[in-house]
TrEMBL record:
Taxonomic lineage: Eukaryota, Viridiplantae, Streptophyta, Embryophyta, Tracheophyta
The organism of origin for this protein: Triticum aestivum (Wheat)
Compartment(s) where it occurs, according to its Swiss-Prot or TrEMBL record: Cell membrane
This protein's UniProt keywords: ATP-binding, Cell membrane, Leucine-rich repeat, Membrane, Nucleotide-binding, Phosphoprotein, Repeat, Signal, Transmembrane, Transmembrane helix
Protein name, UniProt field: Protein kinase domain-containing protein
Gene name of the record: LOC123182375
Annotated TM spans: 233-257
Compositionally skewed regions (Low complexity) per UniProt: 593-602
Topology relative to the membrane: Single-pass membrane protein
Domain of life: Eukaryota
C-alpha cells in the first residue's frame, strides 16, 4: 500500500456517499496538501487521519473501502447521517487508535474485529444493538469508551483495562450487575439502563449494600463497631461543623453583596476577562477566553474559505488549549492547539463596528488577497453580536520583530544581510500585491515588524491586513506610533502612501537593527528612527547607521547604502514624494541582482507556496 492506493480508497469512499457539502477531493489535486479532512504522515507517504465531522455525509457506510487505509490512525466521521452498520474492515484497521462515529444512524452489532490498538472508541448516539463485544477486553490501550444512547443489551463485560479513564454506557438496554472492575466510574456512566444494578447505582436485589466496592470485609466490620460506639458524637460534630460552614458562607455572601453594591458594577460586565477560568465539571478542561462570547446556538457557524484543508468545527476550536501570543491594537491573538494537534492562530477582534454583511464582504476580500505566497492566509472566521474571531495558519518561527530585537543571550542568531534583503523583497512584493490586488484601493494599514511573520526558511509573510476598516477608530498602540506617517498621526486616515512610509520605517529597522521609537537621551526624550537616520547621514557618518551585526559582512556596504536610499525615499514627509510599492519592489530587485556575489542568490520566492510557508 502507498499514497496512491490511499488516494484511490478515499476517492472510492467519496463516490460511494452522496454528500450534502462538496468535498474538494479530485484526481488532479495533492492528497496531503489540499484535500479537506485528510492529514498525511510527516513523510507524506501515507494517509494518517481522516476527519470529516458534520459535513452532511449520508447513506450506508461502505464496506471494504476505508479498511484499505492501513496506516490510518484517526477516523472521525461524527455528526453525519451514516446508516446501516459499522463495517468490520474499518474497526479492524491495525494502526487505528481513535474512531469517532458518534451521532450517526448506524445500527447492527458492534463488530467483534475491533483493532486492539484503539485508544478511543466513540459510537454513542447511534442505534447499535446486541451485546458489548467481549473483544473490548483485549483493547489494552483503550482510554475512552463511549457507547451511550444506543440499544445495546445483555450484561456489562468485566473490563480490566488499566488505561481506561472515561466510560459511558448510559441509556442502553443493558442488564445485570456492574462488574467490580468498573465500579470506579460514576453513576452517570451507567444511568438509563433499567436493569443494571450495583455500586455506584442501587444495590442488586438480594445483596447487602457495601460502602465501598473495594473495602475488605474485616475493615467493614471494624467500621461498624466504631460507628455503633461513637455515632452520637459523630452526628453532633457533623451538625456543629455544618452549622459553622453555613455561617461562614452567609457572612461571605453578605460581604460580596455589599461590595458589589458599593462598586455599582453591573452583573454582565467584564466579559473580556472571563474564559480561561471557566472550567466545567468532571472531565472538562478550562475553555479558551475567546469561547466566552460564542452562543450555544451558533456553534456551527465557523465559516471556512474554499481550498482550506483544515477540518475542525467551532466546538473543536473552543475546546482547544489556547496561549496568548499578544494583545494588539485590534484585539488579542492566541495560538490554539486542537485535540488532534492541529495548530492555528485565533485573533479575537475587539470594538468591531462593521455590521455582519460588511464584515463578511471584507473577509472575502482578505481571503482573495491571501492567495499570495507572501501573505498569511485567513482560513476561517466567526461573526456574532458578541464575538468576532479570525482563524489563520500558525507560522513559525515567529515575527521579524522577534528575529531583530529578540534576546540574543537566549540563542537568537542575528539575521545576515542576504536574509534581510530577502525579507525586504518578500514583504515589499506582498504589500504591492495588496495595493494592486483588490481594484487598487486596498490598504494594509498596520505595517510593522510584528506583522511580518517569518517562515522556517525565513521568508516574509505579511499578516494583519484589512482589519482597520472594520474598527471604530484607528487605534494607535504605542508600539505602532513609530511606523505611522506624519499625515496619519494628524488625520488618522491611512492610505497606500502611508503604507509606503511604514514600510520605509521597517526597512530602516532592518538596516539599523534599532526599534522605530528610541529614547536616546538621559531625559527620556523620544526620537523617531527616520529622524535619527537623517541626522546621522547629514553628518556624513552613514556607515555608523548600520546594525553592528551587518558591519561584519564584507562587500555589502554598497547594497546597504542603496537600500538605505530606498528607505529614506519611502519615509519622505510629503506623501507625493514617496514611491509606489511596485517601484520599491523594482528597486530592491535591482539591488539584489546587482549584489557583489559574496553570497548565493537563489530565489525561494519563486517556489510554490507550500514550500514557502511552513505551517505546523
Ligand atoms: N499567523 C501567525 N503565526 C504566528 N505568529 C503570529 C501570527 N499572527 C500573529 N502572530 C504573532 O502574535 C503576536 C500578537 O499579534 P497581534 O497581531 O495580536 O499583535 P501585534 O502585531 O503586536 O499588534 P497589532 O494588532 O497592532 O498588529 C505578534 O507577535 C505576532 O507576531
Amino acid at each position: 500500500a502507498d499514497l496512491n492506493s490511499d488516494k484511490q480508497a478515499l476517492l472510492a469512499f467519496a463516490s460511494s456517499l452522496p454528500r450534502a457539502r462538496k468535498i474538494n477531493w479530485t484526481l488532479t489535486t495533492q492528497v496531503c496538501t489540499s484535500w479537506v479532512g485528510v492529514t498525511c504522515t510527516p513523510d507524506g507517504k501515507r494517509v494518517r487521519m481522516l476527519r470529516l465531522p458534520a459535513v452532511g455525509l449520508f447513506g450506508p457506510m461502505p464496506s471494504n473501502i476505508l479498511g484499505k487505509l492501513d496506516a490510518l490512525e484517526v477516523l472521525s466521521l461524527r455528526s453525519n447521517r451514516l446508516t446501516v452498520s459499522l463495517p468490520p474492515d474499518v474497526a479492524s484497521i491495525p494502526s487505528l487508535h481513535s474512531l469517532y462515529l458518534q451521532r450517526n444512524n448506524l445500527s447492527g452489532i458492534i463488530p467483534t474485529s475491533l483493532s486492539s490498538n484503539l485508544a478511543y472508541l466513540d459510537l454513542s448516539y447511534n442505534s447499535f444493538v446486541g451485546e458489548i463485544p467481549l473483544k473490548v477486553q483485549n483493547m489494552t490501550e483503550l482510554t475512552g469508551l463511549s457507547l451511550q444512547n444506543n440499544s445495546l443489551s445483555g450484561p456489562i463485560p468485566d473490563l480490566h483495562l488499566p488505561k481506561l479513564r472515561y466510560l459511558n454506557l448510559s441509556y442502553n438496554n443493558l442488564s445485570g450487575p456492574i462488574p467490580a472492575s468498573l465500579q470506579k466510574f460514576p453513576a452517570s456512566s451507567f444511568l438509563g439502563n433499567a436493569f443494571v444494578c450495583g455500586f455506584p447505582l442501587e444495590p442488586c436485589p438480594g445483596t447487602t449494600p457495601s460502602p465501598s466496592p473495594n473495602a475488605p470485609p474485616s475493615q467493614e466490620s471494624n467500621l461498624e463497631k466504631f460507628w455503633r460506639k461513637h455515632h452520637k458524637i459523630i452526628i453532633i460534630a457533623i451538625l456543629a461543623g455544618g452549622a459553622a460552614i453555613l455561617l461562614i458562607l452567609i457572612i461571605i455572601l453578605v460581604i460580596c453583596i455589599c461590595k458589589r453594591k458599593r462598586d455599582g458594577e453591573p452583573r454582565a460586565a467584564s466579559s473580556s476577562s472571563k474564559g480561561k477560568g471557566v472550567a466545567g465539571g468532571r472531565g472538562e478542561k478550562s475553555k479558551p477566553e475567546y469561547s466566552s462570547g460564542v452562543q450555544e446556538a451558533e456553534r456551527n457557524k465557523l465559516v471556512f474559505f474554499e481550498g482550506c484543508s483544515y477540518n475542525f468545527d467551532l466546538e473543536d476550536l473552543l475546546r482547544a488549549s489556547a496561549e496568548v501570543l499578544g494583545k494588539g491594537s485590534y484585539g488579542t491573538t492566541y495560538k490554539a492547539v486542537l485535540e488532534d494537534g492541529t495548530t492555528v492562530v485565533v485573533k479575537r477582534l475587539k470594538e468591531v463596528v462593521a455590521g455582519k454583511k460588511e464584515f463578511e464582504q471584507q473577509m472575502e476580500i482578505i481571503d482573495r488577497l491571501g492567495q499570495h505566497q507572501g501573505v498569511v492566509p485567513l482560513r476561517a472566521f466567526y461573526y456574532s453580536k458578541d464575538e468576532k474571531l479570525l482563524v489563520y495558519d500558525y507560522v513559525t518561527p515567529g515575527s521579524l520583530s522577534a528575529a531583530l530585537h529578540g534576546n540574543k543571550s537566549a540563542g537568537r542568531a542575528p539575521l545576515d544581510w542576504e536574509t534581510r534583503v530577502k525579507i525586504s523583497l518578500g514583504a515589499a512584493r506582498a504589500i504591492a500585491h495588496l495595493h494592486t490586488g483588490a481594484g487598487g484601493k486596498f490598504i494594509h494599514g498596520n505595517i510593522k515588524s510584528n506583522n511580518i511573520i517569518l517562515s522556517r526558511e525565513l521568508n516574509a509573510c505579511v499578516s494583519d491586513f484589512g482589519l482597520a476598516q472594520l474598527m471604530a477608530t484607528p487605534h494607535f498602540h504605542p508600539r505602532l506610533v513609530g511606523y505611522r506617517a506624519p499625515e496619519v498621526l494628524e488625520a488618522k486616515k491611512p492610505t497606500q502612501k502611508s503604507d509606503v512610509y511604514s514600510f520605509g520605517v521597517l526597512l530602516l529597522e532592518m538596516l539599523t537593527g534599532k526599534a522605530p521609537l528610541r529614547s536616546p537621551g538621559r531625559d527620556d526624550s523620544i526620537e523617531h528612527l527616520p529622524r535619527w537616520v537623517q541626522s546621522v547621514v547629514r553628518e556624513e557618518w552613514t556607515s555608523e547607521v548600520f546594525d553592528v551585526d551587518l558591519q561584519r559582512h564584507p562587500n555589502t556596504e554598497d547594497e546597504m547604502v542603496q537600500l538605505l536610499q530606498v528607505a529614506m525615499a519611502c519615509v519622505a514627509v510629503h506623501p507625493d514624494q514617496r514611491p509606489r510599492m511596485e517601484q520599491v519592489v523594482r528597486r530592491i530587485e535591482e539591488i539584489r541582482s546587482s549584489g557583489s556575489g559574496t553570497t548565493t542568490r537563489t530565489s525561494p520566492e519563486d517556489k510554490p507556496r507550500e514550500e514557502h510557508i511552513q505551517i505546523t
